[in-house]
Amino acid sequence: MAKGVLRLTAPNPGPGTADGTNTYLVQEAEGIVVIDPGPESDEHLSRILQLTHGNIIRILLTHGHPDHCTLAPALAASTGSDIWGYAPNLAPFALDKVLGEGETIGSLTAIHTPGHSPDHLCLSYGDGVLFTGDLVMGWASTVVSPPNGRMAHYFQSLRRLLSRSDIRYLPGHGPPVETPQERAWELLARRMRREAEIADQLSKPVTITALLESHYSHTAPTLRGAARRMVHAHLLKLADEGRVATTDGGETWVSVESAAI
Ligand SMILES: [Zn+2]
């Protein structure tokens, strides 16, 4: 992984989680920091406690989605550690401490990277290692699901990573990403292409269902819901930019230029 870092994978494999959520144990001078304890699971809790001998000084969350954090309260209760994250009210429980943009705690520095969720943090560690949560993963692209997921923010966060010179990403799901800049660029380029394709189709009114048919017809049925939300997220970004509008409250969309003709 990286010096002083151990990865454990929670037992929640699935189409949206790869082998399961990654929990990282980071060795600090005074004890161990847990990044993303994962979902509620007695088995995962005992593994974390066993490997750390309960010597946990802090729990950090990349974001408040349940697969990353619902084990946190039980882990905090059995170790007396605080739970830290970007926004106190976006997890399903209250956080103890807020970790703001640019703040450093121990050897980790928070980088606010919204898009997948408004409270998403990447955590920068020594030696060019960046914990990327769900922002950049090697095995799949990130789901951006409105209203909490915002495509414009996702673009900005990827651009922010591209402005850095990290050498390895440790994501919230799947294996380490060894070519981080290439991967971040690949993901951004894919979204830019998709946005351009969608915008091109809107010279006449088109429904989200039709857009889904033309772009995601090969998508597995279990991922169809996520694909629909991605298309919607693209449309909302284009609408914010004043380029498209909905004609019926959200299902049918048309480019603003065409609508004006
Ligand atoms: Zn997530």
Summarize the structure.
It contains 8 helices and 14 strands. With 261 residues, the chain is an alpha/beta fold. Strand 8 (108-112) and strand 9 form a beta hairpin.
Kindly describe this structure:
The protein has 261 residues and is an alpha/beta fold. The protein folds into 2 domains: 5-192, Metallo-beta-lactamase, Chain A (4-Layer Sandwich), CATH 3.60.15; 202-260, Arc Repressor Mutant, subunit A (Orthogonal Bundle), CATH 1.10.10.10. 34% of the residues lie in helices and 22% in strands. It is built from 8 helices and 14 strands. It has a 6-stranded mixed beta sheet, with helices on one face. A hairpin with a 2-residue loop joins strand 7 (104-105) and strand 8 (108-112). Helix 4 (151-162) packs antiparallel against helix 5, helix 5 packs across helix 7 and helix 6 (208-216) packs across helix 7 (224-240). The radius of gyration is 20 Å and the shape is elongated. The protein starts with a strand and ends with a helix. Zinc ion (ZN) is lined by residues 63, 65, 116-117, 134.
Can you give the mean pLDDT? 95
CATH fold category name of the largest domain: Metallo-beta-lactamase, Chain A
Give the SSE order as H and E letters. EEEHEHHEEEEEEHEHEHHEEH
Tell me the radius of gyration. Answer: 20 Å
Main beta-sheet strand count, sense and barrel state: 6 strands, mixed
- CATH H-tier superfamily of the largest domain: Ribonuclease Z/Hydroxyacylglutathione hydrolase-like
Beta-strand residue percentage: 15-25%
Instruction: Supply the helix-strand structural class.
Output: alpha/beta
Bound molecules: zinc ion
> What coarse outline follows from CA principal-axis ratios?
elongated
Terminal CA distance reads 57 Å
